[in-house]
Amino acid sequence: MAGVDWDEDDPFEEQREQAESPMRRLIFDYGRPYWFSMTIGLISSVFARALDLLPALLLAVAIDSIFGEQAFHEQVPLSVLPEAWLPTSPEEQFVFVVVVVAGSFVLGAVFHWLRNWGFNSFSQDVQHDVRTATYDKMQRLDMEFFSNKQTGEMMSVLSNDVNQLERFLNEGMNSATRLIVMVFGITFLLFWLNPQLALVSLAPVPLIAIFTYIFVQKIQPKYAAVRSSVGKVNSRLENNLGGINVIKSSNTEEYESDRVNDVSRKYYNTNWDAIWLRIKFFPGLQVISGIGFVLTFLVGGYWVLMDTAPGPFTGTLETGVFVAFIMYTQQLVWPMAQFGQVINMYQRAEASSERIFGLMDERGRIERDEDANEIEIRDGRVEYDNVSFRYDDELHDSDNAVDGSDGDGTPEADLIIDDISFDVDGGETVALVGPTGAGKSTVLKLLLRLYDVNEGAIRIDGQDVRDVSLASLRQSMGYVGQDSFLFYGTVEENITYGTFGADREEIVEAAKAAEAHEFIQNLPEGYDTMVGERGVKLSGGQRQRVAIARAVLKDPDILILDEATSDVDTETEMLIQRSIDDLTEDRTTFAIAHRLSTIKDADQILVLEDGRIVERGTHDKLLQNEGLYSHLWGVQAGEIDELPQEFIERAQRRHARTEISDD
Ligand code: ADP
């Protein structure tokens, strides 16, 4: 359920709606293991606050009986104790009061310490568990989820939202107990001491409650606007820092500064809107509670001064009791002012936990059968059997609306893979070629089961990839992509990533096979050199060779090379090609390549266009065909200058379509 519906541009709206009883799960599922610190926190908080109320009471006693005329044991606060326990001489009574006040301070300090320990350790433990559980769940979500969300948005769930829960569990719970104990405690004490004057002192309380309620209602949409504009500032900054190369080379610093200025100014305005309301609220609250104070002072003071009850009141009012009233009405204001804060913290925590638990409840298109058998690879034979696939996302929904070229907007119109079938025998190499956007990478993503097919099936040695465990499926494959991402860590760590137990000898062996050993040795600290973000920068070709070494070390049954040599010069390409030839020798290999020279020895070449296989065969056979492949080959080998008009027109049509849908 979405308890708070004022946050309209929440990118996690969908997740929030599907989250089931998030606050209950937060407290019961995640809080339960730490019930001990939570209980200590709660109990100590109640005691600590109760002790905070004692000094005013004892001051009243001291004024009225030690310095005044009243009998010590007849004092209302002391009437709960047996008379025999109480001292009789004024000196002893004085010492008694001082000792009790001092004791209450010491004990109060101990309870405050325990309360702090309890709430803090409870909230830190829960925060840690929620964050790791959310991350764990998040990284297992389908690729679909990641391609539809911005990194900043996901980061903000893991950091801001989790912190919000921590704040609520710590400060929120703390303020809530203080509020309850102080308001009920003071109300009780005032009525106990003098019910008539209590009515006067507490008269503004309903007013304070109404005033705070209205404030909370008004400030919520403002906070939501602040949250959304913070998101916009972050997205802008993230985008700009990521594209700093383009900014510098296009000389657009000024333009970007203006854009940052714009979003930052909007943030300033929305934030100021909220601040303005807040700074009006507190003085307003002070005025209302001031009324209570003045009324108490007026009525109580007159009562004490004249020694007769004013107006409808009866009985007497002691000076000490009057002083206690004055002190208590002061002590009441702050917890009441926090009332709005507590509600606000609760609602923010609720929105955060809706995002977090909604994310945890997220169900991907890929159905995971936790009990599925491990894949059993014998020859490594792969079959694509009438496979069709479309990406199911917002991007393509909007494509339908603008895609004028097909006109029909039917689901077939945006099939990315359209009924393709082929077999690869174990140990064979199959190459996928064709224009950008033809669907080559998608064919391989389906094999890795990053997405599930919409129709048809993909089988490895007769086993449908959907029927075996995802972990064993991916363990059996090695992947070298176009963009070889390196983690921040040593070269060695990057090579052993996924094959963690390997020893130095095996690593060096793998690096040699990938033609990477030589350049690694020349790095400042060899295999121990830090690379990746903040580390030594490696060139695209070097990164690719590290990725190939990683694949060599993994020794997978099936190898996927997604333009593995795209980033390197011709000389390095030759070297890498040699190592790849070794690597692919007796394992099933899928290779995507733009440079046809790298795949001309493949056992089978599939030419893709618009998600369909338009030609297939060996290099020699395809050259004889005189189709797209032979012409591409001709251009790349420098035998012909340009593709025939027919192919150029097809490419232009395709590009025009892509541009329309890019808008
Ligand atoms: P290729 O590898 O042949 O260049 P791809 O398989 O990468 O082609 O892309 C095929 C089509 O699928 C393209 O039109 C591309 O825009 C689209 N596409 C690729 N990835 C996604 C994605 N994550 N979500 C939506 N559409 C995608």
From TrEMBL:
| Tagged with keyword Oxidoreductase | no
Recorded source organism is Natrialba chahannaoensis JCM 10990
Q: Where is the ABC transmembrane type-1 domain?
A: 40-348
Q: What is its main location?
A: membrane
Q: Which InterPro entries match?
A: AAA+_ATPase (IPR003593), ABC1_TM_dom (IPR011527), ABC1_TM_sf (IPR036640), ABC_transporter-like_ATP-bd (IPR003439), ABC_transporter-like_CS (IPR017871), P-loop_NTPase (IPR027417), Type_1_exporter (IPR039421)
Q: How does it sit in the membrane?
A: Multi-pass membrane protein
Query: What protein am I looking at?
Result: ABC transporter
Which compartments does it reside in?
Membrane
